[in-house]
Structure formats: structure tokens, C-alpha cells
């Protein structure tokens, strides 16, 4: 009898062990259930970082401080005044613009090329009597050639060359008389056509 009891106990223990192992295996194989999705409302007091529309821009601007600053450095403004003074002697209709974006007076059917110059600016731009760009002026001051400034100027210069706009560089060592002479020579090389009908229309996006 004792032997039979021992056999029964062994069998019961084996069954219990097998059952325990089965539960453990089933527990391990159970697929992971993702946590239920929870809606988190957007905080309207935080501006979005991706392409805010006009309403978002207005909200951002209304809560930010602003202050005015110089449009040009003192050295650039000295060149601007010298160019403006001599421009009156170069013929009627010429005007001088300050800090214009290149995307406003250049166009290109190549989207990548246009985006490469769109946000770049020139220090000054002379336009003729028909409003067409005649001479782009860049002031090369003492601190101009820093970081990637030479590369940016190379992009500007090549875009101007391809568009047929003279790129005139003015350096700190140029006296007002030198600026007047260089300006007069550049404008003489870029006289507007006699008739406005020869002017290509402005391209709009």
C-alpha cells in the first residue's frame, strides 16, 4: 500500500507541475495588448512650430515684445547716401532701394534655384525709370567676410550674372568720389531700353 501511495503522490506532483508549466507558457505567449489611446487636448497657449497660419501669427505677435532697429549699419548707410547723391546725376528715373529681397526682383522656372536666392538680400538695388533692376550694390565692410559670407556672395553674384544685373561691390576704402564714378560706369553699362514695351512683365506666383 505504501508503494501505491508513493506512486500516486508522484503522479499528482507531476500533473501539478505540468499544469503550472502550462500556465507559465500561456502567460509568456499572451500577445501584448497596447494601452488604450488617450486623447490629450492641444494646449492653445503654445504656438505650433509648423507653418502657422495668419491667425496663429497674429496671436504670436500680439504676445511678443518688439523694438525698432537700424535698417543698415552706419557704414552701409554712408554708402547709401553717397550712392543716392550721385544717382541724381546719372539720368532721370533712377531710384535706390535698401535691403531688397532677391526673390522680389529675380525669378526662375527652376524651383530649387529660386528657393536658393529667395530669402537672400542685397544691400542696395538701383532700379531704372521702368522699375527694372539695373545695378545691385553690396557693401563689403571690414567684418563682411565672416562665416559663409563669401559663399553667399558667390550665389548672389552668379544669380545676378545670369539675370543680366550688374553686381557692384563697394569697399571701405572707396571714397565718395570713387563710389560716384563706379556707379556712373555701372549705370552706363546698364541703360534701360528706350521703350517700356521691351520690358518683360513681372512674374507672379
Structure write-up:
By secondary structure, this protein is an alpha+beta fold. The protein has a domain at 74-191: Trna Endonuclease, Chain: A, domain 1 (3-Layer(aba) Sandwich). Helix content is 44%, strand content 11%. The chain is built from seven helices and four strands; from the N terminus they run αααβααββαβα. A four-stranded mixed sheet has the order 1-2-3-4, sandwiched between helices. It starts with a helix and ends in a 17-residue tail after the last helix. The model has no long low-confidence stretch (mean pLDDT 81).
Features of the shown structure:
Trna Endonuclease, Chain: A, domain 1; 4 strands; 205 residues; alpha+beta; four-stranded mixed β-sheet; elongated
Gap from first CA to last CA:
102 Å
**Number of E-type strands:** 4
Side-by-side strand order of the widest sheet: 1-2-3-4
Binned strand content? 5-15%
How does CATH name the architecture of the domain at 74-191?
3-Layer(aba) Sandwich
Strand and helix order: HHHEHHEEHEH
What structural class should be given to the helix and strand makeup? Answer: alpha+beta
- The number of helical elements comes to 7
Oligomer: single chain
State the low-pLDDT regions, or none: none
CATH class type of the domain at 74-191: Alpha Beta
Helix content: 40-55%
Gyration radius from CA atoms, angstroms: 37 Å
Largest sheet: 4 strands, mixed
Overall pLDDT level: 81
CATH fold-type name of the domain at 74-191: Trna Endonuclease, Chain: A, domain 1
Characterize the overall form: elongated
Concise synopsis of the structure shown:
The chain is of the alpha+beta class and 205 residues long.
Amino acid at each position: 500500500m505504501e508503494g501505491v501511495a508513493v506512486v500516486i503522490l508522484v503522479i499528482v506532483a507531476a500533473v501539478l507541475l505540468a499544469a503550472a508549466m502550462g500556465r507559465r507558457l500561456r502567460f509568456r505567449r499572451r500577445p501584448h495588448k497596447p494601452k488604450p489611446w488617450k486623447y490629450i487636448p492641444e494646449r492653445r497657449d503654445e504656438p505650433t512650430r509648423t507653418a502657422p497660419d495668419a491667425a496663429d501669427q497674429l496671436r504670436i505677435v500680439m504676445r511678443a515684445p518688439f523694438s525698432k532697429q537700424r535698417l543698415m549699419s552706419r557704414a552701409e548707410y554712408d554708402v547709401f547716401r553717397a550712392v543716392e547723391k550721385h544717382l541724381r546725376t546719372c539720368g532721370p528715373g533712377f531710384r535706390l532701394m535698401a535691403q531688397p529681397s532677391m526673390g522680389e526682383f529675380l525669378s526662375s522656372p527652376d524651383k530649387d534655384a529660386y528657393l536658393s536666392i529667395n530669402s537672400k538680400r542685397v544691400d542696395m538695388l538701383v532700379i531704372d525709370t521702368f522699375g527694372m533692376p539695373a545695378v545691385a550694390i553690396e557693401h563689403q565692410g571690414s567684418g563682411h567676410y565672416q562665416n559663409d559670407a563669401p559663399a553667399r556672395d558667390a550665389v548672389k553674384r552668379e544669380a545676378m550674372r545670369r539675370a543680366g544685373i550688374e553686381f557692384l561691390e563697394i569697399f571701405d576704402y572707396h571714397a565718395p568720389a570713387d563710389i560716384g564714378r563706379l556707379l556712373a560706369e555701372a549705370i552706363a553699362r546698364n541703360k534701360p531700353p528706350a521703350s517700356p514695351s521691351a520690358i518683360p512683365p513681372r512674374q507672379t506666383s
